[in-house]
Amino acid sequence: MPVSKTLGDQVEIDTELLTIVSENLDFLTDHWNTDIDDPSLRRGTAILRSFLIDKQLAAAAGMLGHQIFIMGPDPQLLKEYVNDPVMTFYQACGGKFKNAELRSFSGTNRSLSPEEIKDHYDKYLGLHEWSHRVRLAAFMRQTSFKFGSIKINREEVIKYFANKRGGVHYDPSRNIKADQKKAELETKFTLLDRLYESRVLVAGKSAVYYELLGIGQQIVNSGDTQSLRGKIKSLLADLSRA
After folding, report:
1. What is the C-alpha separation between 189 and 172, in angstroms, rounded?
2. Which of 30, 57, 28 is nearest to 43 (CA)?
3. Which region, left, alpha or beta, applies to residue 166 given φ > 0 means left and ψ of -120 to 50 means alpha?
4. Contact 232, 64 (CB under 8 A)
5. Which ranges constitute the DSSP H helices of the chain?
6. What integer best gives the mean pLDDT of the chain?
């Protein structure tokens, strides 16, 4: 049974959950680094799923009255870029591996004229400036991959690795004839399968694993996440002395 305590204005603190979150944040901080290999990333998706799909990180932050923001480009400009009809492929990236860092990667459906290239560059130049704070929930809904008209968000990338690629479960089947909502997700998983199996490299790492790396690094390296980590440790230490 979880150990709960009530602090301040009747805020209930689940010390067991906070301990789990604290230990997992320590693990990600130490291991989700620029040298991490693909099998370690896959195994680490169990933590990302519990943090971000099962909302453990948000629950812990809520107990301490803390908010988590992730630094990134202007959300509106990013949305325009992803939805630009000339873009037939897009990957958010955002990770650091070895000595390489890539903040986005994209492809067009045709060759652009020199004028179009300049206009495109000038319009989206701000995407290289990660000066906007984005709430964690909004960050997870942002697009990780675009294949034609199909967009896959960060939450779906984590589900892919955790539920289909062995992070928690291994399931190579894809049922695109299921009910509409599930069929849409299965179709996205099929597209990720193709990219995974094509062995395309981004910054020296498998493209799909590089995306996973970027998601984890942007979250764990956020100043707000590390601040929460410190608050949890301080609170647990105080409670152990009480």
Report:
1. 10
2. 28
3. left
4. yes
5. 15-31, 38-48, 56-63, 75-83, 114-123, 136-141, 154-159, 180-198, 207-220, 223-241
6. 92
The one-letter amino acid code at 163 reads N
Q: Which two tokens stand for residue 151?
A: 């967009």
- What single-letter amino acid sits at 136? L
Report how far residue 196's alpha carbon sits from residue 166's, in angstroms, rounded to the nearest whole number. 13
**CA separation (Å) from 116 to 51, 69, 82?**
42, 34, 17
DSSP string for 3-37: -EEEETTTEEEEHHHHHHHHHHHHHHHHHSSTT--
**Alpha-carbon span 23 to 17, nearest angstrom:** 10
| Torsion over CA: 206, 186, 217, 91 (sign) | positive
pTM: 0.91
Give the span between the Cα atoms of 140 and 11, in whole angstroms: 27
Token pair belonging to 2: 């979880």
Contact between 87 and 107 under an 8 Å Cβ cutoff? The reply is yes
> Tell me, what DSSP letter sits at residue 170?
B
Amino acid code (one letter) for 93:
C
Specify the pLDDT at position 42.
Answer: 96
CA distance 139 to 13: 26
Query: pLDDT tens digits, residue range 128-186?
Result: 889 999 999 999 999 999 999 999 999 999 999 999 999 999 988 888 777 888 889 99
Taking only the tens place, the pLDDT of each residue in 93-120 is: 999 999 899 989 899 888 989 998 999 8
- φ/ψ of residue 10, rounded to 5: 60, 35
